[in-house]
């Protein structure tokens, strides 16, 4: 990582999310999305007004940073007041309350992204706040003093995951009569310290037993509150393993281990596994197992951590039954890096055993069998995947370079060849290729090589299906998608590839089940919702198309395909005002957008393309 792309700084982090978001979505999805967008727009305006910067808006969460503690807290108070006024005009069951946490701390900045302990503490504070309330850290409180007409209630010291020192927490009292008050803060006296020490000795005798018992007590998830119906087979979400290495540049390694386990489990036909994109929306957030289960509609949750130091690695993992609230299994592994391949397989097989899943047709094989036994090549590959997942031009260039370095270390590395081919494909999608035709040829060449080296991998077949769609070789694309699904029936990439291939030859009705499965496997990925919305559009199911594309736009406000689908759908449905609004969003996202460019880039059957383009033009696009 270059110095220009990576730096540390002290900043004020603002983190906010919605209380009971899953319930609101279940009661009325469209109204919830509309209210959320309205409030987020108001929050963004106030953040800018107070000289802050919005860093991230994912799902129901908003993160911002401020140079000034005073500005951040003033902004948080104004936001809660404005949202309170907005809620007064809504029915009680539709009111949307936000929790806000504010922390002053050290963060790591990479491009527009921030992460690190300072961010984690802000997220933890947010989780402790009441709906409509604000919690701040001791570092924020110490800077505020009497600078604002507010009161504060000391909530004590609280432990934060992976943070060695407990964090002092204060609740902000916003009522005018509370100004200047400080409630609950007590100074430690020598007597109190003596009493506390004695208490520690007494409690210590039973402390370990109580700790073990408490760790087993997890608030059970409610099947009735789940955002999705539970699958008819064991279902699991693998949360991003925490990076305990103390080095943000090692993040790719812990992320890579997580992805490898997800990929291994997805190859098991009798298991339902949430895809990487949706699992990773919880990265760095202090979420509860109950929340993950209810929001993703799964029974089991795997969480863990990775500590890598030189040639040693420690991986801890625990499997939780969210519905019963019980730990099924927990283990800590201390190995050398050379053992990482076997270790991944051990973890995957242990999960399969605990969930009593039958390994039909794959007995005796290694679930997490690596594409390479060359450790240096493998580490290069994991780093390349980390860049590719960011989907930005500079990151795709870095992924290509690292994939080439992995291949140089291991010329038989199938996964690296597949990733290398994917970088050329993504260049075309991003409009970054100087010759799309040549890029498609290179992509196909690299992925063909990957399949020749290891035909048992689902990913390269699914990737090649996408490349063949761009090359207008639709029959071959369907054949490759079929093979991908055969190898990984639960693979989101395989199912979406089949959906895209079928729609490309005008079989939108047949594409819907595959794309619905992709959305179910990866509910927080905008691309699958917008793709499903397109298939609904082509089958004239306009209400469903609008709902899916709005979901996609809510996940990613810059999803161009979702806005194009909305513009065409509203036009076809005769809603001119909404069509114009969607068209304006298209131009905001891409000021150089043209109907001709979209027509060239899209892989639709001729009649479908003409229908779609005609409705884009009706929305005022040229």
The biggest beta sheet is recorded as: 9 strands, mixed
What Rg, in angstroms, do the CA atoms define?
25 Å
Q: Looking at this structure, what is the CATH superfamily of the domain at 3-186?
A: Nucleotide cyclase, GGDEF domain
Strand tally: 15
Overall average pLDDT: 86
Envelope shape: globular
Q: Unreliable stretches, pLDDT < 50, 5 or more residues? A: 1-5, 186-216, 360-366
CATH domain fold name of the domain at 3-186 = Alpha-Beta Plaits
What is the CATH class name of the domain at 3-186?
Answer: Alpha Beta
CATH architectural arrangement of the domain at 3-186: 2-Layer Sandwich
Output the number of helix runs.
24
Distance between the termini: 42 Å
Counting helices, strands and paired strands, the structural category is alpha/beta
Helix fraction, binned, reads 40-55%
Q: Percent of residues in beta strands?
A: 15-25%
What's the structural blueprint in terms of helices and strands?
Blueprint: E1 7-18, H1 21-27, H2 29-49, E2 52-58, E3 61-66, H3 69-87, E4 98-110, E5 113-115, H4 117-128, E6 134-137, H5 138-144, E7 151-160, E8 163-173, E9 182-183, H6 190-216, E10 235-238, E11 242-243, H7 251-266, E12 272-273, H8 276-279, H9 289-296, E13 300-309, E14 312-321, E15 326-336, H10 340-354, H11 375-388, H12 393-409, H13 414-430, H14 436-453, H15 458-470, H16 474-487, H17 492-504, H18 508-521, H19 526-538, H20 542-555, H21 560-573, H22 576-589, H23 595-601, H24 606-618
Parallel strand pairs: 4-6, 7-9, 10-12, 10-13, 11-13
Antiparallel strand pairs: 1-3, 1-4, 2-3, 4-5, 6-8, 7-8, 13-14, 14-15
Helix pairs in contact: 1-2, 2-3, 2-20, 7-10, 7-11, 11-12, 11-13, 12-13, 13-14, 13-15, 14-15, 15-16, 15-17, 16-17, 17-18, 17-19, 18-19, 19-20, 19-21, 20-21, 21-22, 21-24
């Amino acid at each position: 990582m270059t110095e220009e792309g990576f730096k540390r700084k002290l900043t004020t982090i603002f983190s906010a999310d919605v209380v009971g978001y899953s319930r609101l979505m279940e009661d009325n999805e469209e109204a919830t999305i509309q209210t959320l967008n309205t409030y987020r727009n108001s929050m963004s305006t106030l953040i800018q007004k107070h000289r802050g910067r919005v860093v991230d808006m994912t799902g129901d969460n908003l993160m911002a940073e401020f140079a000034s503690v005073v500005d951040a807290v003033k902004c948080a108070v104004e936001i809660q007041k404005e949202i309170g006024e907005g809620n007064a005009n809504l029915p009680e069951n539709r009111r949307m309350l936000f929790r806000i946490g504010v922390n002053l701390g050290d963060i790591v900045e990479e491009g527009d992204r921030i992460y690190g302990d300072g961010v984690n503490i802000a997220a933890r504070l947010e989780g402790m706040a009441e709906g409509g309330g604000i919690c701040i850290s001791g570092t924020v409180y110490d800077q505020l003093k009497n600078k604002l007409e507010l009161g504060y209630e000391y909530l004590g010291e609280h432990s934060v995951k992976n943070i060695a020192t407990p964090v002092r927490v204060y609740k902000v009292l916003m009522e005018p009569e509370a100004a200047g008050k400080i409630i609950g803060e007590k100074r430690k006296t020598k007597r109190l310290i003596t009493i506390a020490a004695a208490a520690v000795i007494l409690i210590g005798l039973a402390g370990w037993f109580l700790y073990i018992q408490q760790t087993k007590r997890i608030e059970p998830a409610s099947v009735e509150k789940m955002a999705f119906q539970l699958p008819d087979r064991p279902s699991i979400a693998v949360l991003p393993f925490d990076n305990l290495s103390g080095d943000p540049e090692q993040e790719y390694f812990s992320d890579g281990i997580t992805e490898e386990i997800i990929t291994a489990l997805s190859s098991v036909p009798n298991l339902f596994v949430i895809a990487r994109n949706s699992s990773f929306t919880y990265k760095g957030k202090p979420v509860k197992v109950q929340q993950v289960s209810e929001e993703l509609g799964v029974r089991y949750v795997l969480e863990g951590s990775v500590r890598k130091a030189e040639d040693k690695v420690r991986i801890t993992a625990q499997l939780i039954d969210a519905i019963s609230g019980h730990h099924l299994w927990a283990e800590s592994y201390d190995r050398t890096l050379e053992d990482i391949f076997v270790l991944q397989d051990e973890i995957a097989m242990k999960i399969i055993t605990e969930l009593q899943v039958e390994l039909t047709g794959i007995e005796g094989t290694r679930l997490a069998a690596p594409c390479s036994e060359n450790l240096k090549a493998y580490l290069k590959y994991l780093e390349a995947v980390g860049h590719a997942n960011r989907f930005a031009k500079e990151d795709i260039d870095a992924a290509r370079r690292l994939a080439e370095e992995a291949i140089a270390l291991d010329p038989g590395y199938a996964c690296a060849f597949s990733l290398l081919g994917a970088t050329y494909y993504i260049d075309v999608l991003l409009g970054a290729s100087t010759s799309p035709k040549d890029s498609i040829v290179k992509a196909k060449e690299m992925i063909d090589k990957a399949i020749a080296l290891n035909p048992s991998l689902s990913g390269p077949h699914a990737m090649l299906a996408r490349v063949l769609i761009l090359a207008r070789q639709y029959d071959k694309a369907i054949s490759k998608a079929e093979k991908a699904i055969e190898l990984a029936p639960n693979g989101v990439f395989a199912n979406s590839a089949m959906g895209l291939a079928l729609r490309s030859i005008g079989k939108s009705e047949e594409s819907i089940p595959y794309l619905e499965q992709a959305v179910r496997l990866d509910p927080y990925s905008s691309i699958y919702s917008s793709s499903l919305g397109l298939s609904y559009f082509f089958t004239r199911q306009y209400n469903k198309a609008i709902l899916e594309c709005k979901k996609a736009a809510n996940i990613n406000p810059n999803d161009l395909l979702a806005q194009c689908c909305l513009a065409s759908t509203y036009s076809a449905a005769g809603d001119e005002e909404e069509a114009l609004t969607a068209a304006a969003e298209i131009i905001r996202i891409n000021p150089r957008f043209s109907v001709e460019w979209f027509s060239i880039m899209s892989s639709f059957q001729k009649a479908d393309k003409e229908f779609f383009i005609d409705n884009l033009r009706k929305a005022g696009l040229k």
